[in-house]
Prior knowledge:
Layout: H1 2-33, H2 38-59, E1 67-70, E2 79-83, E3 89-94, H3 95-98, H4 102-121, H5 134-142, H6 154-162
Amino acid sequence: MFIQQLKKFFLIVVIIASILLTYLWYQDYSFSSNPLSKNIQNKIYKKHQELRYLTYKHFKIKRVFPIIIKDNIDASKFGMTIYSTDRQIKIYLNKNRFKENEEYMIEDVIPHEYAHAIMFALGDFSDENKGHPKKWQSICKKLNGLRCDRFVNHQDILIEKINIFK
């Protein structure tokens, strides 16, 4: 009798685990196969508008720095700002990192990269502290960057990363 109950329990656990794995696979597949949700895109747009306003308010720069979402950026990077030979400044964000922590990407990474764009627009290509000198930190804080740190603090993204039912 005990063996029969144990078999039923094991079967139920296997079925639940299979359903959960299928759900997680589908979520991952959907995220990879589709653009970011309209909700996330709207949040990025609003943040971009806020940063454009702050850029003009504090630095009198009217230039628009396009924000481009890419899914083929090195997995170790959250975003990067590029100054090209034709004097274009573009901000690239790693789409896959939105899956880990959308709020961190919008509230921290975008102002972080925007601060780099402003540094480039001001003609400051400093390599001091790997591109994160005191001037950069000051700019980032004026852009309402919540954490104007040189590198990602992985504790900041941990909680949302482990929440599978967000």
